[in-house]
UniProtKB/TrEMBL annotation:
This is Membrane protein (TIGR02234 family). Residues 165-195 are annotated as: Disordered. The chain crosses the membrane at residues 12-32, 52-71, 78-99, 134-156. The keyword Transmembrane applies. It comes from the Bacteria. InterPro entries: Trp_biosyn_TM_oprn/chp (IPR019051). Keywords: Membrane, Transmembrane, Transmembrane helix. The keyword Repeat does not apply. Pfam families: Trp_oprn_chp. Residues 186-195 have a biased composition (Basic and acidic residues).
Length: 195
């Protein structure tokens, strides 16, 4: 477990990037094809139109991947829980859409073409709604994100602490004489050399 903990930061960030990246890509891909009753051309519906929260929450996941790598232990746990909540909500919504092919998922795209609003008005115009693999691919991404959140919760306390490159060392008081260079060094460290 300690070995996994040492690589936990990188692995967690990688899982978050994979999930967020797949989410962004899937938001631009065709999730459904609508066959119209009137015989007009089939209407492709992108993931972002089928599920409007898909792209923004996928971007949030990408932001979490960067943030979780630089925060302290408490915020790691908070961000891991946020990632799991996003995974759960997107996973539930994606599963419903993938299984049911609801009219609501294609309504906005179809409304732009025919000029009618509301599912009741649009439903009679639809002969069939055919799904593509993209909702299922997105669903796998949310599973990866959930696992990344669990992994972060289990290993976050073993992650290495950030480097000390930008931390200043505390200066100790001098008992002997202080020259001009030492005075400037003390000022740089926040100590008043006149005391």
């Amino acid at each position: 477990m300690k070995e996994l903990g040492r690589r936990g930061r990188a692995l967690t960030a990688l899982l978050f990037v994979i999930a967020g990246g797949i989410g962004i890509i899937s938001s631009t891909q065709t999730w459904f094809t609508v066959v119209r009753v009137d015989g007009a051309a089939d209407v492709p519906v992108a993931g972002a139109d089928a599920m409007p929260v898909l792209a923004p929450l996928s971007l949030a996941v990408l932001a979490l991947s960067a943030a979780i790598a630089i925060v302290g232990p408490v915020m790691r746990i908070v961000f891991a829980i946020i990632a799991m909540l996003i995974a759960g909500s997107l996973g539930t919504a994606t599963l419903v859409i993938a299984l049911e092919h609801p009219v609501s998922a294609v309504a906005s795209t179809l409304s732009e073409l025919v000029g009618l609003m509301g599912e009741e008005a649009l439903a009679p115009m639809i002969a069939s709604i055919t799904g593509t693999p993209w909702p299922w691919i997105a669903l796998v991404a949310w599973g990866v994100l959930f696992l990344g959140g669990i992994f972060a919760l289990l290993t976050a306390r073993h992650w290495k602490v950030g480097g000390r490159r930008f931390q200043t060392s505390s200066s100790t008081p001098h008992d002997g004489p202080i020259d001009a260079v030492e005075s400037w060094d003390d000022l740089s460290h926040g100590t008043d050399p006149t005391r």
